[in-house]
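> call design_seq(struct)
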């Protein structure tokens, strides 16, 4: 259903030009307000998704850190018997740092892929612009 039904303007020749222009301005104001509301809603939704992703990244990092500490100690002790404790700590630390770097890069990639621009609002504004231009003719 169109926001401006055609039958509403069927008797446009009975109204003055001033009344038609006034109605056009009122409709345009209402449309702009609705588009601003749409932009707010869309941006809120996108910010919520971005916030949840950031929370997941942080929570995952904390959980992985806490859970890995005893495992790291055991791994260093086990490897230390074979190659020496210094080399074992260096090797285990390098592997864990690499895994952490991979996780951070993956989180950054996911956040960059999230489009924050209000796409729906932009499209609606284009439609409104076209409608207003058509009304001027």
């Amino acid at each position: 259903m169109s926001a401006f039904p055609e039958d509403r303007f069927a008797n446009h020749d009975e109204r003055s030009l001033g009344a038609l222009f006034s109605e056009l301005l009122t409709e345009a104001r209402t449309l702009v307000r609705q588009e601003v509301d749409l932009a707010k809603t869309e941006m809120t939704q996108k910010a919520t998704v971005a916030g949840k992703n950031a929370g997941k990244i942080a929570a995952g990092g904390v959980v992985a850190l806490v859970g890995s500490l005893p495992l790291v100690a055991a791994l260093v002790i086990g490897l230390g018997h074979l190659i020496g404790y210094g080399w074992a700590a260096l090797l285990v630390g390098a592997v864990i740092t690499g895994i952490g770097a991979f996780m951070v890069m993956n989180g950054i990639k996911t956040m960059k892929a999230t489009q924050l621009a209000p796409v729906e609002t932009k499209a609606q504004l284009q439609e409104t612009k076209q409608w207003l231009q058509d009304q001027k003719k």
